[in-house]
Amino acid sequence: MTMNRRAFLGTTAAATAALGTPMILKAQPAEYIIGASLPLTGPFATAGQLVAPAFTMAQKLFNDEGGVAGTPIRFVTEDSGYIPQNSLANYQRALASHGNNLVGYMADSTGAMKLMAPELKGANARIMGSTSFASELADPATHPYQYVSGPSYQSQFDILLENIKAEGGTTVAFIYSNTEFGRDPIAHGRATAERLGLKVVLEEVTKPQGADIPTHVTKLAQSGAEYCILQGYVTGVWPQLIGGARQFGLPTKFRGTFWGMEKIIADRITEQAGPFLAGYEGVMPYRYFWDQADAPRYQTYAKYAGEMFAGTPLEKYLSTWTLQTMCGLEIAFKTLRDTAEAGHELTADNLAETLAGISDWDTGGFFGGPISMVNNAIGTGRVYAYDPESGLFNPTSDWLSV
User: What is the CATH number of the domain that holds 363?
Assistant: First the structure.
């Protein structure tokens, strides 16, 4: 008599149960690890240093809520200096140190995500979020384990250009940094503008820091653009471009994407140089942290921040950069929890399947309503305008999805 493998295993399981002998099960880890690379030094250190405490808060919050099916989570963060090769080395070190206990990772840039993508194969695959909204990551066919915590840069350009068209605009300039995330949406934005009947009259590339502001402003003046979208900056250049244009007397209306929408930066510029950011608008994927009335998750964050960060700037306000990180961590936590509660092992493939299937999820505050992961991204955002008097970004549009 012959017996195939499946029948043999079934017979073995039945015999084991009949004898009362326990099956050998995979040991439950004492903790799950999520690693992270942050730019604690380098050109974007300001953002990295504000984001770092979010991991401390998220660890306490998630573990207070039961961890992943009762197993606690621990975050392990390292400095990258905003150098993709450093992030890759950090990831490889985390894999070597924590093995299968490492169930997820957070990267710090588009360059890091692209560099690490080929590494996410077989035993080295993990689900991976990041600070990036890189458009190419929003493609599960090529990046099945990586996700975007909001709309891609291309989707952010779509939202802004749709908004400009709705306002009656006809001409637009793109000024962007010569970085990976600066260049990301430019070709797509050009195509969207053409579809909407908008004319792109200038595409100007700058350094991400120390840009030649007078030269770029002169080219903007010569273009005659009614609107200008700034892309690929975090701190210095985008307000300098606006300030230079105002000194030049340009009536151009400026728009920004996520990294140019931080209150801390806008307030600092207003304090140092006056209210020239009045009228500046941009796309923000989330509601701001002060808008907590219909945001119970934000209310929970406020409670934890008040207890954990008393006497620091984070006690009463979480930056947009911090919210982006918290959103990414919430996505990872939901994916881990839902996979475990469904009785599945926390493999990269199982987690990727759960991630792609997130639908009608009420995040409790980040977005204007329930969201779904579409192509591993969340194509939702709202346009806000900065008010120098109140120091707030106020919404000027409804929530828009693309």
Answer: 3.40.50.2300
- Cβ atoms of 319 and 57 closer than 8 Å: no
What averages of pLDDT result for each successive group of 10 residues across the chain (402 residues)?
37 39 58 96 85 95 97 97 96 97 95 94 97 94 96 97 97 94 95 98 95 97 98 90 96 97 94 95 97 97 97 92 96 98 97 97 96 96 97 96 91
Token duo for residue 41: 């030094």
Structure tokens of 378?
């969340």
Answer yes or no: are the C-beta atoms of 50 and 40 closer than 8 Å.
Answer: no
Same domain, 192 and 333: no
Amino acid letter for position 358: I
**Count of domains in the chain?**
2
CB atoms within 10 A of CB 389: 8
What ranges in 248-318 are assigned the alpha helix state H?
Answer: 263-273, 296-308
Query: 148, 211, 145, 219: which is closest to 181 by C-alpha?
Result: 148
User: What are φ and ψ of residue 129, in 5° steps?
Assistant: -105, 180
